[in-house]
UniProtKB/TrEMBL annotation, chain A:
The gene is Gins2. It comes from Cinclus mexicanus (American dipper). Its main location: nucleus. Residues 35-139 form the GINS subunit domain. This is GINS complex subunit 2. GO terms for cellular component: GINS complex. Residues 1-31 form the DNA replication complex GINS protein PSF2 N-terminal domain. It comes from the Eukaryota.
From TrEMBL, chain B:
One of its GO terms (biological process) is mitotic DNA replication initiation. Keywords: DNA replication, Nucleus. It is found in: Nucleus. It comes from Cinclus mexicanus (American dipper). The GINS complex plays an essential role in the initiation of DNA replication. Residues 38-149 form the GINS subunit domain. This is DNA replication complex GINS protein PSF3. The gene is Gins3.
């Protein structure tokens, strides 16, 4: 797509990759997203800790954006260290919730689960493990069906 | 040839081949870990059992055993799947359906494989059967991939191991 015009001193929206690139070349200053703010993130973290369900996150890429911006443009982000800690705390809470949810799903042998507001990052970290575990469980559960085929062979 | 009534240890595949519920050529004796005494241990607390020592393919072998008609089969199938989560801190809401061996041990495997700060994983892994170990590896990989991403290693280009070895082999050929 088209970008610009780039006028000095005037904020302009660009794709993240370009912003990082320009920043690395010291050609710009980055403006953090609205939610990357200590007050807002504290609210999110507290809500995450309080609720059983997952809080909708301000961005489906909150982890990725936080990492990128804090790595390359921390000088443009007020209270960067606190922000890093807040996002990490929120992540930890969410992942713990996901595991708790997985365990209770397994123990009650549910057939379906619906988890709203998860981001891809969280799903990828636990997803493979959970899928495989459920595969095994399914196989073990089919053992319980009566009348499973036992092979008879004629000699 | 064998005397009728003699007792032998044979591999599972052979037993499966010989078994025929109608002709009764052989009958299968359950290994002790699948018998009632051990099943009680599992229902008390599945987490304490060293499944690697007791036969490293507890789940797989147990599932295969169900091919031989045995009045205890339903209980065996239940136990393999189940074992009361006595060691678990989570409340069990349904007292009728007791949680099961795989299910009970699942939590620990998940938590330790996905937790970077867990120091005694080797002690836990030593007591897992092969199926559980494979699961554990998968969990670890998820964690390792995440950490690798966190450190920024995901965006570094590294030479494929195939290419690295190719260089070494070429040198060996030259020296010949």
């Amino acid at each position: 797509g088209d970008l610009g015009p780039f006028n000095p001193g005037l904020p302009v929206e660009v794709p993240v990759w370009l912003a990082i690139n320009l920043k690395q070349r010291q050609k710009c200053r980055l403006i953090p997203p609205e939610w990357m703010d200590v007050g807002k993130l504290e609210e999110i973290r507290d809500r995450e800790r309080k609720e059983d369900t997952f809080t909708p996150m301000p961005s489906p890429y909150y982890m990725e954006l936080t990492k990128l911006l804090l790595n390359y443009a921390s000088d443009n982000i007020p209270r960067a260290d606190e922000i890093r800690t807040l996002v990490k705390d929120t992540w930890d809470t969410r992942v713990a919730k996901l595991r708790l949810s997985a365990d209770s799903f397994v123990r009650q042998q549910e057939a379906h689960a619906k988890l709203d507001n998860l981001t891809l990052m969280e799903i990828n970290t636990t997803g493979t493990f959970l899928t495989q575990a459920l595969d095994h469980m399914y196989k073990l559960r089919t053992n319980l069906q009566p009348g499973e085929s036992s092979h008879s062979q004629d000699f | 040839s064998f005397l009728q009534g003699s007792k032998l240890e044979i591999p599972l595949w052979l037993a499966k081949g010989l078994y025929d519920s109608k002709r009764r050529i052989i009958s299968v004796e359950l290994p002790k870990i699948y018998r009632e005494a051990w099943r009680t241990v599992f229902s008390a607390d599945a987490n304490v059992v060293d499944l690697h020592k007791m036969g490293p393919y507890y789940y797989g072998f147990g599932s295969q055993l169900l091919n031989f008609e045995n009045p205890e089969n339903p209980e065996i199938a239940q136990t393999i799947l189940q074992a009361t989560g006595g060691g678990s801190v989570l409340p069990v809401s349904d007292p009728v359906c007791s949680p099961q061996t795989f299910i009970a041990r699942f939590r620990r495997i998940m938590d330790s494989s996905q937790n970077a700060y867990n120091e005694d994983t080797s002690a836990l892994v030593a007591r897992l059967d092969e199926l559980e170990r494979a699961l554990f590896q998968v969990g670890q990989k998820g964690l390792n991939d995440f950490q690798c991403w966190e450190k920024g290693q995901a965006s570094q280009i590294t030479a494929s191991s195939l290419v690295q070895n190719y260089g070494k082999r070429k040198l060996a050929e030259v020296d010949g």
